[in-house]
Amino acid sequence: MVQRVEHWLQCREKSCCSYYLVYVTGEDASRIARTLSVPPWEITVAIGCDDALPDAFVLANGARHRLALARTRVSSDAEPSCEFLVRLPDGAARCGLGEGRPNPCRTFPSQMIDGEIRFATEGCVCDWSGVEIDAAHDAELLRSELRARERYAGLVAQWNGYVATLERTTDLTHRDFCRFLLDEYPP
Hints:
Blueprint: E1 2-3, H1 4-10, H2 15-19, H3 26-36, E2 44-48, E3 57-58, E4 64-69, E5 71-72, E6 81-82, E7 85-87, E8 93-95, H4 103-107, E9 110-113, E10 116-119, E11 131-132, H5 135-165, H6 174-184
Parallel strand pairs: 1-11
Antiparallel strand pairs: 2-4, 3-4, 5-6, 7-8, 9-10
Helix pairs in contact: 3-6
């Protein structure tokens, strides 16, 4: 049996990196930004969203957003894919972040479904049928991701509470929120 990470590494297409919008936590964004020595606002985008989501942060004029990895188009006819997806000359794709991948990418396609670890592979072109689930390892990864999301939701609530005290919010930007995250996730 092949392990999940080995199988993903062997995949030439990395269609999951092309299809999915990867929503990250402040921990992910800060860690990646510091690893690459770039500000987090250059590797993430603020995507408008539903107000009720726990990671929905307020920006200008009260609009809510979620933090996602930036996506880019390789050519005008190509669909946007993860900014860190590297296409090699032989057509194979690799993650440019390697071990620095954000939590959602580290756990893909493992998900906790009805109390069991299962693979949710929609949008993926790989055949996952012969891949072994390491339930203990994947459960710990998913628990770690959940803890990171819970902490991030608390920080988003703190940010949103601060924004609610401001008289004027028209100038708040994605960059302001990212600066807040850098303060909250020190090196």
